[in-house]
From TrEMBL:
Residues 41-290 form the G-protein coupled receptors family 1 profile domain. Its main location: membrane. GO terms for molecular function: G protein-coupled receptor activity; olfactory receptor activity. GO terms for cellular component: plasma membrane. Gene3D superfamilies: Rhodopsin 7-helix transmembrane proteins. It comes from the Eukaryota. This is Olfactory receptor. It comes from Cnephaeus nilssonii (Northern bat).
Amino acid sequence: MDNHNQTMLNEFILMGITDLPELQAPLFGLFLIVYLVSLVGNLGLIILTKIDSKLQMPMYFFLRHLAFTDLGYSTTVGPKMLVNLAVNQHAISYNSCATQLTVFNMFITSEICILSAMAYDRYVAICNPLLYTVIMSQRLCHLLVAMPYLYSVFLSLMITTKIFISSFCGFNVIRHFYCDSLPLISLLCSDTHEIKLIILSFAAFNLVSSLLIVLVSYILILVAILRMNSAEGRHKAFSTCGSHLTVIVIFYGTLFFMYVQPKSSHSLDTDKMASLFYTLVIPMLNPLIYSLRNKEVKNALTKTWSMLLRLPHWQLGAGPARPSCRSCRPCRKLVMALKSFCHLAHITWLLRSRLEALISKMVACERYCLMLSHQPQLLQLLLLKAQAEEGL
């Protein structure tokens, strides 16, 4: 590396969020709460989708990695920003700045790709429900996650290397609250045309390609939903995609606001607010959106919370449910048979969800379980009703 680069710049100075001392304490408290909610929410989502048996599906596999990337880039930026606000210390070492730039770019690029993979997963679940478990195999899911990680590592290392092997002029104040590519490029003395071209080309490719996958997937999903005969089936399909679609709109809307607006409307304060939104606020919102809008996640959270409190699961319910019947052998056999039927590949996702709801009700209520186990014709009528409502 250039000697001038090494001797003149041992550290950088981050400008921070604000220069007003009276705002630093309130902002520290606000962003500390935001970061802690993000940390707890994403860690909880990772653990919950890992330990709960009902969340071992491709959708929740991708959700776990989305939470991991959210946690990654918010932790890359958040703690350093909080330290700067708390002790008014804005210096960051040369190597720490390079590390922060690399890790942040890696996680943000991975998230863009994982959101596209989640859109494809929703397309397969709604448009090809009979082949869902065949198409979205474990091998394909791991491939759709591994490729974004490898690509993002390559891209982030290339950008960081290109920037830090160049010569800095000696002015070390970064007009941002973290080490980002474009503010660092403005400090370079050497020709920046090649670096800017690389960054803008890859940024455009990442945004356009991922957004194209999302748009095509959701257009096909919308066509499939409009062709459904059952109003309840359409409602469940919309609710299945609602959480992911909300996250997509917030995430891409923020990125397009930052990078697509004309240069004349750019300002330092506007860029800082947009950066704060997608580095801290979006990682906080994502687990809240998925936990509040997803019934399976809410049920798993309630179940896990009841286990932590060492209380029977039925005691946390709203209704006067009774404990499960553990001594009745026909009840246990019926529940096991229904669970096995749920894992068959040829049944649709809507019928599977109805069966899982039926199993939950049987486990929670002894009388309901006994009634179905000793009256198999009633169970058959329930299954036929579910198939008829689905329009099979």
